[in-house]
Design a protein that fits this description.
Helix content of chain B: 40-55%
Largest sheet of chain A: 2 strands, antiparallel
Oligomer: heterodimer
Structural class of chain B: mainly alpha
Distance between the termini of chain B: 22 Å
Shape of chain A: globular
Number of strands of chain B: 0
Number of strands of chain A: 2
Number of domains of chain A: 1
CATH class of chain A: Mainly Alpha
Strand order of the largest sheet of chain A: 1-2
Number of helices of chain B: 3
Strand content of chain A: under 5%
Shape of chain B: extended
CATH topology of chain A: Arp2/3 complex 21 kDa subunit ARPC3
C-alpha cells in the first residue's frame, strides 16, 4: 500500500475548494511564466524532469522508526528547468498520480499542488536564488545551495499543510500538535530531499551545465559569441 | 555530452528507478501518513474514488508478481508523465526565431 499524498477527507470541502482555487491560480501563473523558460532544448528536458520526479517519488526512504519519506521534487525541478516550469512538472506528476495511481485524493488535488508544487518551489527556489546571489558561482556552491534550498522546502510544505489543516481540518486534533509532528518528521525527510536534489543537480552540472536553469548565470561567460556573428543562432554542440 | 545522449540517459535513469529500484523502497508510511495516523487526523479519511483503477497503489491489476507489477506500474507512470508533461511543454515552448536568410538549409 503506497499512498503518499493527502487523501480525501483530511480537509473539509470549503477549504479544499479554496486550496483548489489557489492551485488553479498558481498553475495559471506558471503556465504564463513557463513560456519564457521553455524552448526547443528545455521543453524535452522539462518533460524528462517531470518523469524523473515521478520515478523518485516512488522511492520511499526510511527516516525514523516506522516512517519513510520521499522526494517532493519542487526545488529540484525549479533549479533544473526554471521555477514556473518546475511548478508545472510537479503538478503534472500529482495529477497523474491522482488520476491513474489512486494516490492523492481528487478533492485534495488543490491541497497537494499548493503544498508540494507551489510552496516547495516558492520557498526552495527563492532560497536557492538568494544563496547564489551571495555565494561564489562555482559548481560546488551551486550544489550546496541546492542542498540547503531543498532541505528547507520540505518543512515549508509541511507548514503549508498545517496551515491548511488549521483552516479546514476535519478532525479536532490541536494545530500545535499537528505542526510539531509534521515539521519534525519533515525536517528529517528534507535531508533526503536535499541529498537527491544536490546529487542530481551536480550530475547534470558535470555533464551539461548549460542545461541547469538555476545556474545559467554561472556559465554565461562560456556562451559569449564574437560580435557581428549571427546572434540568434544557437552555438553548435557536438 | 551530446544532448540526445543526455536525454536518453536521463530517461533511462528514471525508468530504472521506477521500474527496478522502486521495489526496494521503504514500505513504511511516509511522514504525512504516519503523523496522520499517530495524531488521529485521518479518522475521516475517505477511500480514493479511483482506488480500483488498473494502476491503483502503484501496481498493475492482474499481475501477481509484486516485483513485476510494481515495476511495470512505475515504467508506465514514467512514460505517461513524460508524454503528458513533455507534450504540454513542447506545445508551450518558445519557437526559436528563424535566423533570417541563413545559408544553412539543413
Amino acid at each position: 500500500m503506497r499512498d503518499v499524498h493527502v487523501p480525501d477527507g483530511f480537509i473539509n470541502a470549503p477549504v479544499s475548494i479554496a486550496a483548489g482555487a489557489v492551485a488553479v491560480a498558481g498553475v495559471g501563473v506558471a503556465l504564463r511564466g513557463a513560456r519564457r523558460e521553455l524552448d526547443d532544448r528545455t521543453a524535452p528536458l522539462a518533460g524528462l524532469t517531470a518523469a524523473f520526479v515521478f520515478a523518485a517519488q516512488m522511492l520511499n526512504f526510511p527516516v525514523a522508526s516506522g516512517t519513510s519519506g520521499h522526494l517532493l521534487g519542487g526545488t529540484l525541478a525549479a533549479i533544473l528547468v526554471g521555477p514556473y516550469t518546475g511548478v508545472l512538472c510537479v503538478s503534472v506528476v500529482l495529477l497523474m498520480q491522482g488520476l491513474l495511481f489512486a494516490d492523492g485524493g481528487l478533492t485534495a488535488l488543490g491541497v497537494n499542488i499548493t503544498t508540494m508544487a507551489l510552496a516547495t518551489v516558492l520557498v526552495g527556489y527563492g532560497l536557492f536564488r538568494v544563496l547564489l546571489r551571495v555565494l561564489p558561482k562555482t559548481r560546488a556552491f551551486v550544489a550546496g545551495a541546492s542542498f540547503a534550498a531543498a532541505v528547507v522546502s520540505v518543512p515549508a510544505a509541511a507548514v503549508a499543510f498545517t496551515l491548511i489543516y488549521a483552516a479546514g481540518g476535519t478532525t479536532d486534533v490541536s494545530v500545535g500538535k499537528v505542526a510539531a509532528a509534521m515539521i519534525g518528521v519533515h525536517v528529517l525527510i528534507g535531508i533526503g530531499e536535499a541529498l537527491i536534489t544536490a546529487v542530481t543537480v551536480s550530475s547534470v552540472l558535470a555533464v551539461r551545465p548549460d542545461l541547469v536553469y538555476g545556474a545559467r548565470d554561472m556559465i554565461k561567460p562560456l556562451q559569449l559569441r564574437p560580435a557581428g556573428a549571427d546572434g540568434s543562432a544557437e552555438p553548435s554542440r557536438a | 555530452m551530446n544532448i540526445k545522449r543526455f536525454f536518453v540517459g536521463f530517461l533511462l535513469v528514471s525508468l530504472v528507478l521506477a521500474g527496478v529500484v522502486s521495489y526496494y523502497a521503504s514500505s513504511s508510511p511516509d511522514g504525512l501518513e504516519k503523523v496522520a495516523a499517530d495524531k488521529g487526523i485521518d479518522s475521516k479519511e475517505k477511500d480514493h474514488s479511483l482506488k480500483d483503477s488498473p494502476l491503483g497503489d502503484y501496481g498493475v491489476k492482474g499481475v501477481g508478481d509484486a516485483r513485476l507489477s510494481g515495476g511495470l506500474a512505475g515504467v508506465i507512470g514514467v512514460g505517461v508523465v513524460l508524454l503528458a508533461g513533455g507534450g504540454l511543454f513542447w506545445v508551450m515552448r518558445r519557437r526559436e526565431p528563424s535566423s533570417g536568410p541563413s545559408r544553412d538549409a539543413s
